[in-house]
Amino acid sequence: IFSRPLDGKGRPKPDEYVMSAGDRVEIYRPLLIDPKAARLDRAKKDSSR
């Protein structure tokens, strides 16, 4: 997880911020498939039924 970008929703950069109890951190990972392509695939699958 240390190589992933972090975000604290409007807080300073992670390397400049000291975490406190109750702070929320989001760890992002790359998408496996484009969301638009996934929707199109599902629509095609549903229309063929």
Radius of gyration: 18 Å
Strand count, sense and closure of the main sheet? 2 strands, antiparallel
Order of helices and strands: EEH
How does the overall form come out from the CA principal axes? elongated
| Share of residues in strands | 5-15%
* Unreliable sequence segments: none
State the strand order across the main sheet.
Answer: 1-2
Question: Structurally, how many domains make up the residues?
Answer: 1
Descriptive terms for the model:
49 residues; alpha+beta; two-stranded antiparallel sheet; 2 strands; 27% helix; elongated
Characterization of this structure:
- With 49 residues, the chain is α+β, with helices and mostly antiparallel strands.
- It has one domain.
- Helix content is 27%, strand content 8%.
- The protein is built from one helix and two strands; from the N terminus they run ββα.
- Strands 1-2 form a two-stranded antiparallel ribbon.
- The longest helix has 13 residues, at 35-47.
- It is elongated and about 55 Å long.
TL;DR?
The protein has 49 residues and is α+β, with helices and mostly antiparallel strands.
